[in-house]
Amino acid sequence: MTDNKKGLNTICTHEGELEDTLFKGAVSPLYMSTSYEFEDVDVKRYPRYYNTPNQEALCKKMAALEHTEAALIFGSGMAAISTALMAFLQAGDHVVLQQTIYGGTYHFAVSQFEKFGISYSFTSGWEVEDFEREIKPNTKVLYLETPSNPLLTITDIKGVADLAKKKGILTMIDNTFASPVNQTPVDLGIDIVIHSATKYMGGHSDICAGVVMASQEHMDKVWQTGICFGGSLSDYTVWLLERSIKTMAIRVKAQNENAMKMATYLSQSKDVDKVYYPGLVDHPGHELAKSQMTGFGGMLSFELNSDIDASLFFKELQLIKPSMSLAGIESTMLSPTQTSHSLMSAEDRAKQGIKDSLIRFSLGIEDIEDLIADIEQAIAKVKSMTVTA
Ligand SMILES: *Cc1c(COP(=O)(O)O)cnc(C)c1O
Prior knowledge:
This protein is α/β, with parallel strands linked by helices. 39% of the residues lie in helices and 14% in strands. It has helices at 8-14, 53-65, 77-88, 103-112, 128-134, 157-167, 179-182, 216-229, 235-246, 248-268, 286-292, 310-316, 346-351, 368-388, and strands spanning 70-74, 94-97, 119-122, 139-145, 170-174, 192-196, 210-214, 272-276, 299-304, 321-322, 332-334, 358-362.
């Protein structure tokens, strides 16, 4: 952990920024050069070495956000995840992955590990004991993701980190859903933190990027693998991401607040069967979330009454966009059955409690009254259709 004493908004706004020595402009200059001097320099810079001026500047901000010594920026969340995993795994190793992780990570494990001679197990649940049960003598990594997609299940971060430390195993967490604003897992003992920066860090649904944060020692290993896989991010997008992060803490706090209000509203609505949000006291992970998160996040899921058709409901929304991704400043909804979890068998979905009527809701920063009004009018229209049909 670094001894960065600055406040979160100050880190978001200023940490790592480059000085414009030529013109004294207020923001980091953008250096698009892919070729730099090699003689008489301390660092040989090249985009795929993750060390251009803008890449290094943003890495400093990223590391400060997650309380780590170092960070590396990647071209996508999956580039970050695959590089981090392959940096610490080799033939003969075993990795334990949490049940219900991001679909792309699941697919990476089941489609790639075997050909590298890496074996893997998924936990059968979310408890620390579920991780412990899968550990083998050759287990090198425990991989977790909390809150999870789409049911916002909460995993005990410190519990899993303590277990791993006892056994000398490395821990990695996908912290995308929480964002560093709501959760800093290194403070709970996690070794490596990963984000899809496409989500809350970008925050405007227009940047695809990823990041890995850890100690300098761990990041040196990630770098060694990273330069081979070549998943670095273009400097222009790095520069845009630096700009996006300046407002991350205020955006995410507004999204937290909207999600809490929306979860409360939906849980009181007679048209809604069930709401999944860690901020609600009846969520099974509420106490755990309270102990390890500083905010409950901007994501929730809910089930409409079975007599309200979800596809019709999506079509009637006027403000909220039915849309694949999440974490933008605009509110979006999707059906996990039709998108993120469509490749999973209906049986597996049922086992994990993902119903066809489940709707995942990514809260934006719009006024909560307008979001609620949109849902109310859409439900009213679907109901009137059902009556006349
Ligand atoms: C989107 C996402 C990813 C993958 O990120 P990309 O930028 O799409 O590669 C990984 N984990 C979580 C939790 C995500 O939401």
